Amino acid sequence: MMLGILTEEFQDFEIEVVDIFSELVDDEDLMTIFNSFREYGTEILYHKETMIGKQAFTNYFFDRIKQSLAKRLVDRDYLFTFQTQSFFDASIEGIPHFLYTDHTARANLRYPGFNKSNLPSDLWLECEKDIYHNATMNFTMSTNIANSIINDYACDSGKVLCVNGGANVSVAEDEVFDDLRYANMNILFVGIDWERKGGPVLAEAFKIVLERLPNASLDILGCTPVLDIPNCNVVGKVPLVEVSEYFKKASVFCLPTRLEPFGIVFLEAMAHKLPIVATNIGAIPEFVIGGKNGYIVEPDNPQQLAEKLLALIESPEKCKDFGSYGHQFLWNTYTWKKTGLRLRENIEQFIYN
After folding, report:
1. Fewer Cβ within 10 Å of end Cβ, the chain: N or C?
2. How far is the C-alpha of 206 from the C-alpha of 57, rounded, in Å?
3. β-strands 160-162, 186-190: how paired?
4. Do β-strands 217-221 and 186-190 pair in parallel, antiparallel, or remain unpaired?
5. Where are the domains of the chain?
6. What is the pLDDT of residues 148-186, one digit of tens each?
7. Which of 18, 105, 10, 12 has the alpha carbon at shortest distance from 57?
8. What is the rounded end-to-end Cα distance, in angstroms, of the chain?
């Protein structure tokens, strides 16, 4: 997605793409393995972490990427460099460098139930701090992560800017949806990680919903939990082109996630004019506005979740109003085109002056 945005906004320039992990590093290198044990030996030995899962979060691996990238780019004349996500430092001295990310490691500390021991090592966290300090400008998908870079990593606020993001769906702004779906009493969940996305909490809440509305239904996409609940349709993974059909027949979108740096799937629901019930974590309260396009609930609270789901599916008119508000809010604020324009405007200040 970001390559397409940069290509569109910088049409007069040739763009070179470097895949850091496949082109520049070897995760089977003996020193990589040694340093993984050095920083995460206890977790690996007690099977709390896997070797592969921690190799990229070592000081040694971080330095290798930095050195390999510098060697790769040293003889080329670049106007600027641009990296997505903050797992490495692609900055080169003398070249304006920009970062676009939806997360930081330390932002995880604000999620319910997150164990501090699951953070990368202190050595790697210092490396992560260098990523933000070495960037000419840090662009983020949310204000939540912009604040984390400033407050958790002591980065100058003048080097951090939220430029938002967009929905990855081919839905037109003026697309017409069937308003009769709001009376279907159909709740939609879309997520691969059932536990992390709050699936068990939704399952408990749905049981409460059924006590009052026995004809309500729940569709689960992306994962295959084993559930023995009436009217619960576990679909599992489906091709992306088919996901839209489930959005189009749903009455409400619900994802009571426990850990979510951003959550593009919420924007996809808004693109389909669906009201949303979600948790008050991460960036979610920035685009799910309580009482406007959905409801915000506390994590791990099935009773509160059920109450908000009932408030919507018992009122098709409210579903329609919330869905319309969210749809317009999306097109006014969260589109990749708007993100691309903000990126170009801010990058140009550094490459043409």
Report:
1. C
2. 39
3. unpaired
4. parallel
5. 14-165+336-351, 179-333
6. 999 999 999 999 999 999 998 888 889 999 999 999 999
7. 105
8. 28
**For residues 223-235, average pLDDT:** 97
More confident residue, 70 or 201: 201
Q: Cβ atoms within 10 A of the Cβ of 11, count?
A: 8
Q: How many CA atoms lie within 13 A of 254 on its CB side?
A: 35
Burial class of residue 327 in the structure, from the number of CB atoms within 10 Å of its CB (0-12 exposed, 13-18 middle, 19+ buried): buried
Q: Please give the CATH topology (third level) of the domain spanning 179-333.
A: Rossmann fold (3.40.50)
Candidates 300, 326, 299; CA nearest to 312 is: 326
Across all residues in the chain, what is the average pLDDT?
90
Residue 50 binned pLDDT confidence (cut-offs 50, 70, 90): very low
Residue 74 exposed, middle or buried by CB count within 10 Å (0-12, 13-18, 19+):
exposed
Q: Which two tokens stand for residue 100?
A: 């676009």
| Three-state SS at 98 | strand
Query: What predicted TM-score, i.e. pTM, was given to this entire model?
Result: 0.91
What's the rounded Cα separation, in Å, for the pair 181 and 274?
Answer: 10
Which of the listed CATH numbers 3.30.420, 3.40.50, 1.20.1070, 3.40.109 matches domain 14-165+336-351?
A: 3.40.50
Token digits for 211? 């006590």
The Cα 50–Cα 38 span in angstroms is: 14
Assess contact for 87 and 56: CB atoms under 8 A.
Answer: yes
C-alpha pair distances (Å), 303 with each of 202, 204, 212, 258, 306: 10, 8, 13, 16, 5
Nearest C-alpha neighbor of 282 from the set 194, 197, 176: 197
Is residue 140 within a helix (H) or strand (E), and if so which, with residue range?
Answer: strand 137-140
Report the run of H or E that residue 126 belongs to, with start and end: helix 122-134
Other CB atoms within 10 A of residue 97 CB: 22
**How far is residue 165's CA from residue 336's CA, in Å, rounded to a whole number?**
6
Kindly report the number of other CB atoms within 10 A of residue 325's CB atom: 18
Contact 52, 28 (CB under 8 A): no
Residue at token pair 């619960």:
232
Residue 155 tokens, joined: 């980065």
